[in-house]
């Protein structure tokens, strides 16, 4: 099914950027929210993105105006009566998302796709609350949506195959890189990213390194920003919601460091609140130091050792589990990490990195970290199998990928 017109529910930062991406592809898009003030803010966000492109000489003012005109502001669900797809981008609460789809399902055409931009919630559960679970699918954009290339396409248990295929094609129309992800808690990228962020928090609360040292090590590895800078940009409140989903599904290996709760309770959510692990509008660094000191004082472990591998290897391990569970192929895992996280291009992706490092070395390091830090470093079953079979990666010409000698 070709998509001629789209709708976006939720005119916040994410919804507005999704609408901008659709308009930039030359398609009309309805941008709807509960009141005109929120819609106007969304339109202003879209205009700011286009103004930025004009200032950089990437498009003419006339072309920008034509694109902006494709965005149809609305506060009425009836404006979705002729759309081919509706993408919801409302707060990350299952009840809210279910209500949104229930309100529009009888208004949109029978063939319309109901897509959710959720970053972690169950597509199957969301679909079950509608009359058309076969038309419900995950379409997870990454923030900022007008910049990031990756879209995770997640079918639920009831999602029709053609719906997932249509969304993959639609994503390509939007000049994005779609990766199909079989449903699991956290999907693919967030499932890999959270152990990395969590280990950074453990390192900080155990006194292994400072915020700045940890972030600098991540950037030196080749990532676009460090874990604490990333959390400040994403919003600690958003990360908190994702962690709860992962913890409920995967248990102790996803148990969050206590440090997170100290910052969460202090409402230091990052840039959006003026301060997080770094000062922004709130320049009082004493608050940050006090929260870190409080976490360090109550930490059961102190003065542990820091290494960049301590952050990266939990991601490697989770990536292996995702391949093991057929969440995605090894190639798609690497593509998703390159396009969605900014994993260093020269390393070709996280599983190519593991192959280049040597799977025997990765296993040995995980086992050593498990001995020191516990179950969150327990090696994936298939990693042990690969090493036992001498599929050690690039040096053996075979690991998660095959290499010519």
Question: What does this entry look like structurally?
Answer:
- Belongs to the 3-hydroxyacyl-CoA dehydrogenase family.
- Residues 186-280, 306-403 form the 3-hydroxyacyl-CoA dehydrogenase C-terminal domain.
- InterPro entries: 3-OHacyl-CoA_DH_CS, 3-OHacyl-CoA_DH_NAD-bd, 3HC_DH_C, 6-PGluconate_DH-like_C_sf, 6PGD_dom2, NAD(P)-bd_dom_sf.
- Keywords: Isomerase, Lyase, Multifunctional enzyme, Oxidoreductase.
- This is 3-hydroxyacyl-CoA dehydrogenase.
- The chain has 405 residues and is an alpha/beta fold.
- The chain has 3 domains: 6-180, 3-Layer(aba) Sandwich (Rossmann fold), CATH 3.40.50.720; 189-298, N-(1-d-carboxylethyl)-l-norvaline Dehydrogenase, domain 2, CATH 1.10.1040.50; 308-396, N-(1-d-carboxylethyl)-l-norvaline Dehydrogenase, domain 2, CATH 1.10.1040.
- The chain contains 17 helices and 8 strands.
- The chain has helices at 13-24, 36-55, 61-69, 94-104, 123-128, 161-173, 189-205, 211-221, 227-234, 236-250, 258-265, 285-298, 308-324, 330-340, 350-357, 359-373, 381-388; strands at residues 6-9, 29-32, 71-74, 85-88, 113-116, 136-141, 150-155, 177-180.
- An 8-stranded mixed beta sheet has the order 3-2-1-4-5-6-7-8, with helices on both faces.
- Strand 6 and strand 7 form a beta hairpin.
- Helix 1 (13-24) crosses helix 2 (36-55), helix 2 runs antiparallel to helix 3 (61-69) and helix 13 (308-324) packs across helix 16 (359-373).
- It is globular and about 60 Å long.
- The chain starts with 5 loop residues before the first strand and ends in a 17-residue tail after the last helix.
- The model has no long low-confidence stretch (mean pLDDT 95).
């Amino acid at each position: 099914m070709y998509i001629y017109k789209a709708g976006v529910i939720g005119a916040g930062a994410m919804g507005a950027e999704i609408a901008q991406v659709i308009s930039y592809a030359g398609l009309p898009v309805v941008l709807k929210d509960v009141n005109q003030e929120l819609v106007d803010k969304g339109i202003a966000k879209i205009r700011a993105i286009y103004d930025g492109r004009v200032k950089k000489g990437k498009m003419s003012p006339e072309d920008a105006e034509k694109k902006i005109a494709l965005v149809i502001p609305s506060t009425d669900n009836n404006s979705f009566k002729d759309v081919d797809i509706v993408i919801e981008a409302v707060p990350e609460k299952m009840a809210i998302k279910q209500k949104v789809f229930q309100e529009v399902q009888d208004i949109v055409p029978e063939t319309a796709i109901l897509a959710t931009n959720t970053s972690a919630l169950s597509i199957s559960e969301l679909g079950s609350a509608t009359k058309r679970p076969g038309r419900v699918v995950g379409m997870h954009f990454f923030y900022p949506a007008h910049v990031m290339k990756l879209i995770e396409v997640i079918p639920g248990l009831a999602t029709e195959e053609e719906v997932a295929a249509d969304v993959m094609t639609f994503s390509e129309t939007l000049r994005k890189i779609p990766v199909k992800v079989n449903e699991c808690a956290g999907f693919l990228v967030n499932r890999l990213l959270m152990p990395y962020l969590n280990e950074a928090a453990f390192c900080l609360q155990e006194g292994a390194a400072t915020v700045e040292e940890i972030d600098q090590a991540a950037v030196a590895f080749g990532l676009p920003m460090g874990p604490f800078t990333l959390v400040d940009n994403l919003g600690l409140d958003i990360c908190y919601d994702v962690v709860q989903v992962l913890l409920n599904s995967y248990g102790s290996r996803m148990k969050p460091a206590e440090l997170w709760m100290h910052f969460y309770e202090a409402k230091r959510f990052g840039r959006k609140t003026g301060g997080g692990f770094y000062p922004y509008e709130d320049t009082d660094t004493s608050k940050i130091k006090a929260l870190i000191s409080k976490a360090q004082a109550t930490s059961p472990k102190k003065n542990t050792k820091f290494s960049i591998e301590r952050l990266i290897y939990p991601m490697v391990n989770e990536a292996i589990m995702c391949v093991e569970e057929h969440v995605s192929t090894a190639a798609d895992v690497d593509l998703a990490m390159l396009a969605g996280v900014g994993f260093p291009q020269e390393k070709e992706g996280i599983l190519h990195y593991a192959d280049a490092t040597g799977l025997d070395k990765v296993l040995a390091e995980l086992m050593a970290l498990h001995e020191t830090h516990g179950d969150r470093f327990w090696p994936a079953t298939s990693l042990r199998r690969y090493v036992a079979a001498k599929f050690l990666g690039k040096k053996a010409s075979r690991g998660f990928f095959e290499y010519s000698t």
